[in-house]
């Protein structure tokens, strides 16, 4: 299996930016698990939103049909991607916009910097955007003397707290109200020192803080939830109105959009504008959605740009078994139902994209053979709750398993690394040998009494060596029986005239 | 009906009593049980750990073993007392077979995927077989099932989400005479087992287990029933480690659905010589 | 090679020949397959549903007859100064409001600071979607520039009953997405703090809806 990639065309280049683990998931998660406040915050938030989502999803009689349609439209978009991107470019340009293409994070950052500089402005207001988070745009601009102000409340909390987002929809989900109040008191210029931790008071403090910025900003930067190929239309789905402020008031608007966000037709919005709000915030509809096509004379920004971003998306697209991860509409339903995310939190995934979707998307964008993302596909018990919740039916568990296979293969074929099998490799090979033959399995099962002898007086084993130590750190394991079922059955068959015959009282 | 029993590796080696109970139930209904001797394992552990080359012979063995009896008419369906192993047979085997062909694995068999699907189509999880094929709706009336006490129930993920078992297992439990089934809070939450996940991400797995254990103990039930021996081993291991007891001071256990259904007035289910749910109040039906 | 050509070439290479025409069920992907295209609700049902959904978002809603509209708008404005687009039907505004009105148009737009000093805005609307409580503005003359319905803190929005549809796909079927569209579902809100919904952040904190029948 070591020469699989021989003779195949070279894969598209990997993506870069904030899409990598900073340390292996298990060790980051171990640390986060000790933070009781974090766990309480996450539990409260994920359970609240989970229940809301279930309520509004159950209202729609055609929810499954909508998911089916969403999945099919995304698959169609991927299949027709070159054609749709060209069509989008043509339409957006025809209506007064400018389209730029960026191969990776560095190129996208350079393009945006150039566009901002051309306006003469040294500050920008930002609408929450995963794509710009992914490419590290804020940090890039800050280093070059351009101040980027996040305007979404949660992004503001994260930015003021010198923190990292831990959720794609609610980036400050790991913070509770008291922590947020403390951040505002510490970091927000001119904040009322009597500020309480009531969410309404906190939201109003953010309103006052940002109002001047909105009214004076010359340049805004956004992401996009959708790009409609047919018309060249871009869309941003939001709640607070900070998006509308940024998309409407400044003279220049720069949008960074992943190439996978393109949809074929305007009427596809009829599907996605039902799937997205209900799956993300658990609302029937988000408070505000803005759609714009190039620039409209006399209404909104005059100078409108979009940067179409690859940054590893073509790499993911080249993976036939993983490419449906690109169907993701960033609703965050998967992380809200994920028992692993709920306990480890978003930071443990390292990447801008945490949770189940992050565990597949990040390694797909960088290539799973990229050392830094190899523990992500294992950050799941494969319980399948994410697949059930996904509005576009991305089979996340199946892709996780596929990526685990890629990881094992990459590890076994890594040049230079002398192929010394790990303890795990040996266990897997041994189990494969035993479990591919009933007779071998039966022979091994004759050793069961040894395990029974190893058990303590209470009939359990409480400490296993090596790999098993992970198990016995919090669980006992029962002593095996004296005899396997196979052996019991063989005896019973022997005692019977008819090999399949059943007689009362047998089997023991 | 002649029914092939796929015991699954964990039941075969660790919980033979679950396989015995499965046989007993099916025989009580008048069916004939066959145990194809070549069987070993579904290969799920290898697949889920990414060891596809190692999974391949395991999958091939399973398909070969079970298809021969289907072909000769030795049995009509196969049953396993495990939702996750059945889900593996139904959903993963063909994927492994396709993987082998796609990767040009030496000796890869291009017919394996279709054969795996054929075996998968005739393989049932126990509650699925009882409910959908054998028409069991009332365990007390049709199987003589009897077990006094209070029990709670954990629906394992793969049965629930991959096989869409719905309330089949729970309904069967609820129809056992003397048995009161109390709702498990956050029942649909994974117990944290996840095969090698429990070793590779032992800390997160343990945190999930701790919540499951707390929820089970909060019900006051004498035991937690389920349809997957692996999850039950995980949960049972946590209950035992934490020395969890019922309000009346007896250890809280895990029991398999098959064991509960096999329990009768004449031969009620016992664990370590004690009545399985003794000491917990039972609901009269 | 330009970034554009490079990326398009990468996509072609990535898709390769894996997907052969007919492999996927393209027919099943055509929009309209499976999910609801219409709600089949009567006008009365649509109005009731829209009212229910808007109230759920904490919008204030009133159903009025055409003849009562001007008085209803006057009452809702609560004595505030307001901006209205140049194309707002003249008979929607009570004559007594003339001296409190500022007029905005694409040709003669008001500055943002001016808008910020104005108490309210009155607009019409293009389409409303009952099931989701969504009102869509499309920049038509009775709705005006996007800025006017954004900066003032109080939005009085008129919804003619014939513009109400049942469900989202019906809404998009009536809209031209190349116009600047704003979908509004209740007043500005956030759920960023412990997932608790708080109405009123940056957009108008008060949304008054007058359904005219």
UniProtKB/TrEMBL annotation, chain A:
One of its GO terms (biological process) is lactate metabolic process. SUPFAM superfamilies: 4Fe-4S ferredoxins, NagB/RpiA/CoA transferase-like. Residues 85-309 form the LUD domain. It comes from the Bacteria. Residues 495-508 have a biased composition (Basic and acidic residues). Residues 488-508 are annotated as: Disordered. Keywords: 4Fe-4S, Electron transport, Iron, Iron-sulfur, Metal-binding, Repeat, Transport. This is (4Fe-4S) protein.
Automatic annotation (TrEMBL), chain B:
GO terms for molecular function: oxidoreductase activity. Residues 3-89, 151-235 form the Cysteine-rich domain. GO terms for cellular component: cytosol. Pfam families: CCG. It comes from the Bacteria. InterPro entries: Cys_rich_dom. This is Fe-S osidoreductase. The lineage of its organism: Bacteria, Bacillati, Actinomycetota, Actinomycetes, Micrococcales.
From TrEMBL, chain C:
Residues 115-212 form the LUD domain. This is Lactate utilization protein C. It comes from the Bacteria. PANTHER family: LACTATE UTILIZATION PROTEIN C (PTHR43682:SF1).
């Amino acid at each position: 299996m070591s020469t699989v990639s021989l003779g195949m065309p070279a894969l598209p280049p990997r993506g870069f930016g904030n899409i990598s683990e900073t340390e292996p998931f298990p060790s980051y998660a171990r640390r986060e698990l000790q933070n009781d406040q974090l766990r309480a915050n996450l539990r409260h938030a994920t359970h609240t939103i989970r229940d809301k989502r279930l309520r509004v999803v159950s209202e729609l009689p055609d929810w499954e049909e909508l998911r089916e349609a969403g999945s099919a439209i995304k698959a169609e978009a991927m299949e027709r991607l070159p054609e749709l991107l060209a069509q989008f470019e043509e339409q957006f340009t025809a209506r007064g916009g400018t389209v730029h293409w960026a191969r990776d994070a560095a190129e996208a950052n350079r393009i945006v910097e150039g566009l901002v500089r051309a306006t003469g402005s040294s500050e920008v207001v930002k609408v929450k955007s995963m794509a710009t988070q992914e490419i590290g745009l804020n940090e890039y601009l800050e280093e070059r003397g351009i101040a980027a102000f996040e305007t979404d409340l949660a992004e503001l909390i994260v930015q003021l707290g010198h923190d990292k987002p831990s959720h794609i929809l609610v980036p400050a989900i790991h913070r509770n109200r008291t922590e947020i109040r403390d951040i505002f008191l510490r970091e927000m210029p001119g904040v009322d020192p009597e500020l309480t931790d009531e969410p309404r008071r906190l939201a109003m403090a953010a309103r006052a803080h940002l109002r001047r910025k909105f009214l004076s900003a010359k340049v805004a930067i956004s992401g996009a939830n959708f790009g409609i190929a047919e018309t060249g239309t871009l869309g941003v789905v939001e709640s607070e109105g900070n998006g509308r402020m940024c998309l409407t008031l400044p003279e220049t608007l720069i949008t960074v959009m992943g190439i996978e966000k393109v949809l074929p037709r305007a009427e596809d919005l009829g599907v996605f504008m039902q799937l997205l709000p209900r799956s993300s915030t658990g609302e029937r509809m988000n408070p505000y959605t803005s759609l714009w096509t190039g620039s409209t004379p006399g209404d909104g920004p005059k100078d409108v740009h979009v940067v179409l971003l690859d940054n590893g998306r073509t790499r993911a697209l080249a993976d036939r078994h993983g490419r449906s991860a690109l169907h993701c509409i960033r609703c965050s339903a998967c992380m809200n139902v994920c028992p692993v995310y709920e306990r480890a939190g978003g930071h443990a995934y390292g990447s801008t994209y945490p949770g189940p979707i992050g565990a597949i998307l990040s390694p797909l964008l960088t290539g799973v053979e990229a050392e830094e993302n190899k523990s992500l596909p294992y950050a799941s018990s494969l319980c399948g709750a994410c697949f059930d919740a996904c509005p576009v039916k991305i089979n996340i568990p199946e892709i996780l398993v596929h990526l685990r296979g890629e990881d094992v293969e990459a590890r076994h074929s890594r040049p230079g690394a002398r192929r010394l099998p790990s303890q795990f490799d040996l266990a897997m090979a041994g189990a494969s040998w035993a479990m591919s033959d009933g007779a071998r399995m039966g022979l091994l099962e004759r050793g069961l009494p040894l395990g029974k002898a190893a058990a303590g007086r209470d009939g359990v084993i409480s400490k296993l060596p090596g790999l098993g130590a992970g198990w016995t750190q919090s669980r006992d394991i029962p002593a095996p029986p004296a005899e396997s079922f196979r052996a019991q059955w063989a005896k019973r068959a022997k005692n019977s005239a008819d090999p399949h015959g059943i007689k009362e009282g047998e089997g023991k | 009906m002649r029914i092939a029993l796929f015991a699954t590796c964990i039941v075969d080696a660790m919980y033979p009593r679950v396989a015995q109970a499965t046989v007993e139930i099916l025989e009580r209904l008048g069916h004939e049980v066959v145990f194809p001797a070549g069987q070993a394992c579904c290969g799920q552990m290898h697949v889920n750990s990414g060891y596809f080359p190692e999974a391949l012979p395991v999958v091939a063995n399973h398909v070969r073993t079970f298809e021969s009896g289907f072909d000769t008419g030795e049995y009509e369906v196969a049953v396993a007392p495990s939702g996750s192993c059945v889900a593996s047979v139904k959903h993963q085997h063909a994927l492994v077979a396709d993987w082998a062909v796609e990767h040009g694995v030496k000796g890869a068999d291009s017919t394996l995927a279709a054969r795996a699907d054929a075996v998968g189509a005739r393989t049932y999880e126990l509650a699925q077989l009882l409910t959908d094929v054998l028409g069991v709706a009332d365990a007390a009336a049709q199987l003589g099932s009897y077990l006094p006490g209070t029990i709670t129930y954990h629906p394992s993920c793969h049965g629930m989400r991959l096989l869409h078992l719905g309330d089949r297992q729970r309904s069967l439990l609820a129809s056992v005479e003397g048995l009161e089934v109390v709702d498990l809070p956050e029942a649909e939450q994974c117990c944290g087992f996840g095969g090698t996940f429990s070793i590779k991400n032992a800390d997160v797995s343990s945190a999930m287990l701790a919540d499951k254990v707390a929820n089970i103990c909060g019900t006051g039930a004498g035991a937690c029933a389920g349809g997957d021996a692996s999850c039950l081993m995980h949960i049972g291991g946590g209950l035992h480690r934490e020395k969890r007891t019922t309000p009346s001071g007896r250890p809280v256990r895990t029991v398999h659905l098959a064991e509960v259904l096999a329990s009768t007035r004449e031969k009620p289910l016992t664990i370590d010589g004690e009545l399985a749910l003794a000491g917990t109040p039972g609901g009269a039906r | 090679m330009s970034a554009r050509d490079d990326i398009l070439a990468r996509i072609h290479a990535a898709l390769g020949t894996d997907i052969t025409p007919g492999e996927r069920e393209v027919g099943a992907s055509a929009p309209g397959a499976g999910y609801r295209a219409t709600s089949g609700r009567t006008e009365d049902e649509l109005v009731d549903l829209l009212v229910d959904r808007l109230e759920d978002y904490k919008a204030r809603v009133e159903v009025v007859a055409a003849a009562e509209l001007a008085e209803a708008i006057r009452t809702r404005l609560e004595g505030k100064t307001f901006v209205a687009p140049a194309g707002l039907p003249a008979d929607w505004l009570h004559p007594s409001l003339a001296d409190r009105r500022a007029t905005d148009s694409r040709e003669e737009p008001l500055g943002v600071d001016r808008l910020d000093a104005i108490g309210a805005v009155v607009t019409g609307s293009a389409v409303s979607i009952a099931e989701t409580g969504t009102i869509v503005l499309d920049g038509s003359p009775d709705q005006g520039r996007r800025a006017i319905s954004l900066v003032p803190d109080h939005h009085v929005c008129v919804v003619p009953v014939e513009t109400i549809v049942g469900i989202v796909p019906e809404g998009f079927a009536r809209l031209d997405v190349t116009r600047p569209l704003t979908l509004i579902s209740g007043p500005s809100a956030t759920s960023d703090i412990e997932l608790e919904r708080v109405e009123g952040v940056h957009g108008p904190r008060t949304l008054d809806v007058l359904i005219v029948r």
